[in-house]
Amino acid sequence: MCKTEYAVCGNPHLLEGSLSAFLPSLNLAPRLSIPNPWIRSYSFDGKEEWEVNPLYCNTVREIYPYSNSNRLLNIVDMAIFDFLTGNMDRHHYEMFTKFGDDGFLLHLDNARGFGRHSHDEISILAPLSQCCIIKRTTLLRLQLLAEPEYQLSDMMRESLLQDPLAPVLTEPHLLALDRRLQLILAAVGKCIDTFGEATVVANDTAQPQSPAAHRAKVET
């Protein structure tokens, strides 16, 4: 297969593709579509502010809900996911309305992921490198997946081995995951060197104290 309108060619009969999974209808599971603060310009005419202003995150931090919730940390998680897969096309994210402002982000529309295994688009990591924050649980998981016995490429290879569509990812794409993981850890390390671990690594493992426990502590 080799058609100019698709701009792709088979090699000789295999062709890369993507699968789509559909969520329940909006009537059953209402959700919001929210613009990504780090949306790309998608144009040669100009740049988005984050593409030219390294202090852009300071502006984002002043905007609700990024100013007083876990939303910004979730955006950083999403950027890390997109960087690992090479997805530059995260113009929106979605959330189920049922869970309010602190609900999890839905990473829909990943069709641009796993495109060029030989290219690491560092700009995808802008939320991490500009805001210099990351969840402790995310960092610990990334550090674990960088260990030789739990290497990310090996974990993915084993996970996908029994998939009916195997091989889901080619070997160069699997190896790219390990390379990109090291770049993420390097970006976190640079932030820690600049601002300190206490500022960069957000402790998302602490459990909120119950009102009863708080009263007991005050009374004693």
Automatic annotation (TrEMBL):
Q: Does this entry carry the keyword Transmembrane helix?
A: no
Task: Check the record and name the Pfam families matching this protein.
Answer: Fam20C
Q: What is its main location?
A: Golgi
Q: Which residues participate in ATP binding? A: S20, A21, F22, L23, E94, D109
InterPro entries (alphabetical): FAM20, FAM20_C
Domain FAM20 C-terminal intervals:
1-200
Q: Which family does the similarity line name?
A: Belongs to the FAM20 family.
Q: What is this protein called?
A: FA20A Pseudokinase
Q: Which organism is it from?
A: Leptocoma aspasia
